[in-house]
Amino acid sequence: MKKLLAILLAALTMFSALSLSACADNGDKGEGGATTNIVFNGFEDFDRDFLTIRVVDWAFGSVNQNFDKKYVKFGEASALFRPYGEIGYRGLPIIYLPMYSTRFEYNYKDMTKVEKISAWFYNAQEETYKVGIGLQTATVDCGQTLDSTSRTVTQKFNLVPGWNYVEYDMDPKYLNCQTGVDLTNIFGMCIQFEYCNELVEEAPYIYVDDIRFHLSEETVTGSETFGLKADAENGVWEVADFEDVRQAQMFTIGTEIAENRRCTIEVVNANELSTTAKSGQNVLKVTRHASYTTSHTYSTGISGDVLSEVFKTIGKDLVDHPENYVLKLDYFNYNPTRQRAGYNFGSSLCTRNCNTWRYLDYVEPYTWGSFEVNIGWCQSYLYGQLTSENPVSTYPKLLDGYTVEDAKFTTNPSTFGFSFAKYTNNDRRDMVFVFDNIRVERIA
Question: Which of 166, 243, 254, 289 lies in disulfide reach of 280, CB 3.0 to 4.6 Å?
């Protein structure tokens, strides 16, 4: 009996250790024979590699297996994606490749030992084309729209004509900023495409081949910090300046359900928007996509994890004297009409943020504006709603086991959110808002 038990335990241990190494024989080995990477999808087997693909909206377009060797990097086949779009639909077409299949007996849902994901893309257009790669954090059936909390912010890649090798950084420090991310339970890899002007004949030809997971022998812990710059002598602490493209992952996307009623965010060089960054070369571009339906406000926000790290770096003086500090940023209105954005804040130990949206000042078209809010005022405002004698249903409430003293904005901040104007049925254009040089400054 003990011998049988030992055999079963050994088998279980082997299964656990190799769960991410299914099909590892078609990857690469390092010193000592250890697997360094595995082919997640080479698009060779139509049933395994194509029937499992989730086309995550009825307006996506087509997915086909390609055998033209000009567009095959390895083996005999690759995937051809042609995102068509649809009249009135201006969301970005997206698909995801599931991390597990009971029919085809593979399971890669535990991604804690994956350092990066690589892929080869062939852009058959004459101009640069942009794709995004991210992680799917909840299961979605074919034809369904994605809830924005069911996938991570995608990392964008500019594909030049011809072959392009891309790597998606799996740094948990950044990924964990986003809602619902559990790297032991990832449901899929997302590929997001550009909107294609509604006409089938204008749909791009994008080929994909040899998607690989690059492995570590140990669980990947990621960056110890976000690497934010601090100048305590002059009283300035960086929240984000976007010179590191991973900082896009420090922002969350709002909870609108439909893909065409949700912001997309990416780090871009300010020159692409015909302006100059306020810090460095890059900025955060937030696009609110047009729709034929009236929608809710669209939102994005700075992760509470990032604010918490900044506040801890500043230290005790911020906790004792929050009125001496302000959160500041610069924002650019990349639109033909004057615009403004709202902002909101709260504590991660509450059920929701404060119920009242405040607003940044209006900014004229293609012009920079600036914003600042006193951190002490934020804390007082939150305290007032938590201790109100006549609370309304939309006020934040403490989570079980916590006190008002625990739920301070300075010690346990939640996402600092931004919202954008609602659509009307006559408003069909994408709106673009740009953020840069987000920081905390000491004013006294």
Answer: 243
Paired with 98 in beta bridges are: 188
Q: How far apart are CA 266 and CA 84, in angstroms?
A: 22
**186 and 213 Cβ atoms separated by less than 8 Å:** no
How high is the pLDDT of residue 92?
Answer: 74
Q: Give burial (CB, 10 Å; 0-12/13-18/19+) of 340.
A: middle
Residues in contact with 169: Cβ distance below 8 Å, sequence separation at least 6, in sequence order: 116, 155, 246
Q: What is the pLDDT of residues 85-118, one digit of tens each?
A: 665 555 678 888 999 999 999 999 999 999 999 9
| C-alpha to C-alpha distance for 220 and 37, rounded to whole angstroms | 14
Task: Answer for the pair 101, 187: CB distance below 8 angstroms, yes or no.
Answer: no
Most trustworthy range by pLDDT among 135-139, 391-395, 396-400, 416-420 = 396-400
> Which residue in this structure is represented by tokens 């928007």?
273
Query: pTM of the predicted model, to two decimals?
Result: 0.82
Q: Are 330 and 369 in contact (CB under 8 A)?
A: yes
- Distance CA(373)–CA(352), nearest Å, equals 20
Q: What are residue 28's phi and psi, to 5 degrees?
A: -115, 155
88 to 59, 151, 251, 289: CA distances (angstroms): 10, 24, 27, 11
For residue 9, the SS3 value is helix
Rounded-to-integer distance, Cα 117 and Cα 207, Å: 17
Say which DSSP state 279 is in.
Answer: S
Q: According to the model, what pLDDT value does residue 8 have?
A: 41
Q: Which of 339, 241, 336, 258 is nearest to 296 (CA)?
A: 258
What is the mean predicted confidence (pLDDT) over 138-148? 51
Contacts of 207 by beta carbon, 8 Å cutoff, 6+ apart? 66, 71, 72, 78, 79, 80, 81, 121, 122, 124
User: Residue ranges of the alpha helices (H) in 182-329?
Assistant: 304-314, 316-320
Q: Which residue has the higher pLDDT, 419 or 425?
A: 419
How far apart are alpha carbons 274 and 76 in whole angstroms? 43
In degrees to the nearest 10, what's the CA dihedral of 257, 259, 261, 266? Answer: 120
H helices present in 235-374, as ranges: 304-314, 316-320
DSSP state, residue 129: E
Alpha-helical regions (H) of 275-374: 304-314, 316-320
Q: Residue 42 and residue 120: Cα distance in Å, rounded?
A: 10
Cα–Cα dist 31/35, whole Å: 9
User: Would you put residue 45 in left (φ > 0), alpha (ψ -120 to 50) or beta?
Assistant: beta
